[in-house]
Amino acid sequence: MPTTEGTILAFDGVCTLCNGLVRFVIANDPPARVRFVSLQSPRATALLGTPVTSHAEEPDTVVLLAGGRRYERSDAVLHLLLELQMPWPLGFAAILVPRVLRDAVYRWIARNRYDWFGRYDVCPVPTPELRARLLDDAR
Hints:
Order of helices and strands: EHEHEEHHH
Oligomer: single chain
Structural class: alpha+beta
Shape: globular
Number of strands: 4
């Protein structure tokens, strides 16, 4: 779904692993090209059209809106690498691995992420760096 708001990463706001991904992006995106939105927010629903949920009614993917395209699962992560400073864009070479294999690994991690990394009861209070780049309903 195209957006005029630049590159946007929609992430599971209560997932510890996903929040770590956001902190990683902030640290490796000095020009601050990537902005963020929690999948649980009304803003994400407005941007994406529908909530992104799994069978258990929990978000099961990250979504990247970039260059007028929508990417999910491993494609989202790999295209996200292209937005970061070197050497991270080199990781895009993993796009050569067939999507069915990449997404199988992605889904395995997504299925187990709360057990392995934990989860928050509510979306954590954003750091000042994240607050500046977070799309919420007030923006």
